[in-house]
Structures are given as structure tokens and as C-alpha cells.
Amino acid sequence: MLGRASRIAFAAALAWCVFVEAAELFLRVQFGMEVDGDWYLIVADSAAADCLRFVRAYAWQIAGVFAATVLAAAASAWLLRRASPAVFAAVVACAFLVVAVRVWSVGSFAAWKPAYVAFDTFRSAREYGRIGRAGRWTDELASRVRQAPEGATNYVFVIGESLTSRRVPFYGYSKDTMPRLASMGGDLAVEGPVRAPSPYTARSIAALLVADGFSAPVWFRLAGYHTAFVGAQPRWERYCSVAAAVFAACERKVYLSEVCKDGCRIYDEQVLPYAAEMMKESPFALFVHLMGSHFEPGTRVPEGFAADEGLDDYDRSVRYTDQVLSRLIASLPPRTELFFISDHGESVDSANWRDVRSEALWTVPVFVYPASSAPRISSFADFVAAWRRRASAGLAPQQRQ
């Protein structure tokens, strides 16, 4: 019985492995993306008609993935019923050797993608399943929408990427990485720095923009606001689907990766025209997701940007964020507040990228414009409370005490 159970388990695992590897190959070639455990969020955030169009557009590729899986299943059946113990043992040994080589070469168990996807699916279902539900707009919610009060304040929430307060002059950094924001003087409130809820984007965005069972876009739609989102980060890459689930309820969504075709480079300043268009209908709650100072920060800025100012690549990316954010602030219509917070920092004080022991990875800046209406934000919980209070009231915020 044990031998038969082992064979059944191995046969099922072989079919799963082939399916995941074939799907990964298809997605990498076609979209440059990876497979992870958040696949169910992609399906949940896509209308049935969109799914059908996708299947029609990539019918041959999808058929190839399933054909490879069927062949693997056939091979599994043969292993299960016909192969001698010696042949079966040899196949198992070869499989474990391949896995060991892949794990050793990359230095991580995630190198074996079929196991990683299986593990990540269960983990994501536990950690992010509630995010998918919190960000989903339903007919029942639509029946609860109330009219926003006359003259309601507009809101812009900007989520930065990998910006540590350790490289921002407002918090004591010696280099002038944010001259444009500094020139605003008392018009800009500098809060924090605060400790990020997580060193990872997906978890941080979920913690920053989900409260009381709903995402921020859902709460603002319920308050009668026009909601919109524009993002410089991809919609469907590893963990980006979690962020997409948070912003799913926005009535209008633009991902630069979906409008920038033919291999063009994406920079944060490209969100500005879309943001300007989205701010024409009041009252609005606009959510902006930047690429900021993400891994390989030198690639996040246009070629030659601040090249002769003695700044390293990370500082150049901070200077670029300064430019983009100041231009966005300059375009705000009357009665509009802007909140900026980074999802997490970066381990610029360590030789290792994403060193979780680094304080620079955990401390992030918070900016509010105009300063006259800024709440005191000394923790990420204060940031959540600030937008939650505004979404509930739909009124101009109280003045700082």
C-alpha cells in the first residue's frame, strides 16, 4: 500500500510540475511575468468576459500548456501501472537530482517553482484572501453608496516604493535629495518617520490601505467619491496582484505596463498626465503607486538624470521622486489634500539588498500637503486612521490641534 501511495503521489506531483513549468514558460515569454500563489486574485479581479478574451487571444499557447500537462499525466499513469520498481526508483532519483541542482544553484527552495507555487498558494490564500474580498466592489455595496457633501475635499494618496527616510534630508540626511519639496517650506508637512508594516510591498500596501474589512477605494466609493488609480508598477507580477486587489474597486484604473507597449521604458513621471485627467471630476480619491527607488534604482530614472551631481543611483532615484511628487502637488486642484508614504525603505546601510535587519529598510517618510490640514502621523496606524476618518466623514478634515 505504501508503495502504491508513493507512486500516486509522485505521479500527481509530476503532472503538477509540468503544468507549472509550462505555464511559467508561457507567461515569461508572452508577458515577462512569473507564476506565484496569487493566481486566484487575478481571476477574482477579472470579469468573465475578460477571461474569455484572454483564452481566445492565447488559445494555442494555453493549449500547449495543457497538452504538456496531459502528456505528463500519461507518463505518470505509465509510472504508476507499468514501470518496474527499478525504473520508478531511477525516475524518482533523477527528479530529486534536478530539484537539488536547481535549489543549490539559486540558493533558495523557491528555485523549484512547482513547490513554491503550491506553498505560496496556501500561504497567499491565508494572508491575502481577505485582501481580495476587501477590495472587491459588489452590487450590495453599490446600494449603500451615499452622496458626498457639497464642497467635499478631494484626496490623493501616493504610495512610494523602497524610499527610506535615511536618504531624505528632512530627517537629517546630508545630501540634497529633495530640493523641490524642501522649497515648499511650511506648505508641506513632514511627518514621521514611521516604521513600515512590512519590508515587502504586498503586505505593506495591504496594511496601509485596508481597514475594517474594506480597502480604501471601497470606503471612498461608499462615501460618494469618484475613485481612480494609476500605477507605474506592473499589474500582474509576483505579489503585484495583491496590490491590484487592494485597488480593484477603483472606478478607473491605469497600469502603465498595459498602456506602454513595444518595450518602452516606464518612469514614474508617466503617471502625471493620467493623474491630471483623473482629478477633473470632484470629489475624487486618487491612488498613485510609484516605482520609486525599487531594486536597481539606477534603472528607475531617465538616462542622464542628475548624473553630474555626485549622487549614487539610490540618491538619484530619491531626487527623481522629489521631482515627480512636486509636479503632482503643483497640479492639484483646489480643496485637495495629498498624502505620501512609502511601502517600505531600502537597506542602504547594508551590503545586502533587502536585509531585514537594516533599520533603513523599515523607516519611511510621510508627507502631507497642504500642511495646514495634516494630522499627526507617527505610525502607519496613524496613516490608516487619517484616511479612514476622511472616508467616513467625507468632509474637510479637522485642523491640526
Topology:
Blueprint: H1 2-31, H2 39-44, H3 48-57, H4 59-81, H5 85-106, H6 113-134, H7 139-142, E1 154-160, H8 179-182, E2 189-195, H9 201-209, E3 210-211, E4 214-215, H10 216-222, E5 226-231, H11 240-246, E6 252-255, H12 256-259, H13 271-278, E7 284-289, H14 313-330, E8 336-342, H15 359-362, E9 363-369, H16 380-393
Parallel strand pairs: 1-7, 1-8, 5-6, 5-7
Antiparallel strand pairs: 2-9, 3-4, 8-9
What does this structure look like?
A hairpin with a 2-residue loop joins strand 3 and strand 4. The protein has two domains: 131 residues, no CATH class; 254 residues, Alkaline Phosphatase, subunit A, CATH 3.40.720.10. With 401 residues, it is α/β, with parallel strands linked by helices. The longest helix is centred in the first third of the chain and has 30 residues. Helix content is 48%, strand content 12%. It contains 16 helices and nine strands. The radius of gyration is 24 Å and the shape is globular.
User: What is the terminal separation in angstroms?
Assistant: 73 Å
Give the integer mean of the pLDDT values: 86
Overall number of structural domains: 2
Strand arrangement in the largest pleated sheet: 2-9-8-1-7-5-6
For the largest beta-sheet, the strand count, sense and barrel status come to: 7 strands, mixed
CATH topology of the largest domain: Alkaline Phosphatase, subunit A
Q: Strand percentage, roughly?
A: 5-15%
Annotation, overall tally of beta strands:
9
Apparent shape: globular
